Amino acid sequence: MFIRLTVFLLISILLINLSPATYALENTLITEQELNLTGFSGYESINPNLLIYPIKQLIEKIELTLKFNQENKTKYQYTLLDKRFEELVFIINFKKTGFLEETVQRYNSHLGNLIANNKNLASDYKDKILNYTIVLKTLQDRYDSTSAYRLLIQQAIDTTRRLN
Amino acid sequence: MSPSIMILFIGIFLSIIIRTFFIINGLDVADVTKLHQMAEAILKGNNPYLLFNFANYPPIGLYIETAILFLSNLLGIPFHILTKILPNLADVITCFVIYKFLIKNHVKPVNASIWSLIYILNPISIIISAAHGHIYSITSLLTLLSIYIITSNSNKSSNLLSAILLGIAIAIKPHPVMLLPLFLVYRKMNLKQTLLFLFISLAPAIIPLIPYLWLTPHQTIVNVFGYSGIYDISYAAILRSLWHQQNAQIWLPQADQMLSLTKWTFIFGAIFLLVILSRAKDLLKSCLAVYLLFIGIYFGISAQYLSWILPLAILTREKMVIPFSIFGTFALLGFYLFFGPEILFGGFWHGAAFQSKYMLIYFVGNSLLWIIVLWWLIKIIKSLFFTPFKTFSPFRKKIVFLSLIVFIISLLPILLLTFDIIKQIN
Predict the structure, then answer these.
(1) What is the largest CA-CA distance in chain B?
(2) pTM score, two decimals?
(3) Please, which of B73, B231, B334, B357 could form a disulfide with B365 given CB 3.0 to 4.6 Å?
């Protein structure tokens, strides 16, 4: 019985997870072409709006714990920063503003952790981090100057600049 | 002291410790605050139905809370602590009642103790009475006694006593009213007896309402009779968690439609159950089936409604109560973590509510719970229906099929609306 129930749940979660892939492009702030022109490489497949997002976070935490070498650990944290950035871009561009505050907080907190502990490696990622601010600025400009979302994105931009 | 009694007392003692921990660390939040406000209004001589749109219960239930507030002021004990004493006491009494009834039904004493402990140590019962602070356990106890009295004796006075207990239960929390038709058809009663049973079981709820209906008919009717429940648990929760992915919205846009559609579907489903379970030997199981239908079909299921199932299921020694309790606890955990962590964790909680990461627990818990509820309901219907069905008259068989068809047809608009909601998620 339990196996059947688990299979049912897994299938439904997978089906739910497929839905963003079919999301219409007209619902984005800027087109994918425009976004690519800023140097953005692509979205994450599992984003903070999805139910299964905590599983992704859990897997990342396990992976990080299993990296015993300090250098590998730091590199992995920069990989995670990239993921947090791509998730943030997804949330902004797909206008899922209800998730914006917590996504910005998650991104800022990850950045803060890197600034506090692993800033020495930031020079290796200088271009990439600079590009983050360009992409975020492009998206931010689509919001009205009085918008609260603009302010949240500005917080992300400011924190990103602190790493560089 | 016999081992069964020892097991029972150890379990009750353990449960009291757990419950005391929840009560002491609880806060005056959520529903407790609402009850506090209503009790304060009544104590000041105000009409709660006029002041609050959440005054949804019959006056007796509110008067109990008012008496608790009066005591709280008198003794200097905070209301949010004192209000939880009564439902937890009712839970302890229910545990003894279950034990006594099981012994009377020739269940081995040790087994009777274990079944009773499944109730008193059940996380759903503990959370609803000790953490959330609802008084549903008082209603459950009275309903249980009412069922037991009508099923164990066949004289007129037992009918009367059963009706009185059911009436008091309905006067505190109105949900046992959905069991009333099963009581009315359980025994062969003439029209006069049926009307008397109906009057006695509705009078304690209706009579105290009359002054309010006289003074503020519109507000009282809207509040008490128009209440549809909050859609926190069961399949409404599944849809809510799916909808949350859209843009972190916690309310479904089609909720009102769903509430009104599922109200009718539940009524049609209850009619179907009434037709097939009329005069069924097992009134406890029949009542359990109606509650399961409500939780499985109706859209406005609040967290506390899960506690209705426990005493009936345990007294009938339904093993399905175990997965129900596990998944129900899981669903409640998801609900409290996301919507009201301070209700469950009290003073220990220092985070914010509405954190998306808890939506997965809410979704998985409610999905499993809903499947279990429907599975269980079908199992009970199968066990109570198939053998007696052969003895049904041709006319009754036709009525059974007709009510089943109407019930199935009433499910279609709900399915269409559900697909419509899922289609909008992207």
Answers:
(1) 65
(2) 0.93
(3) B334
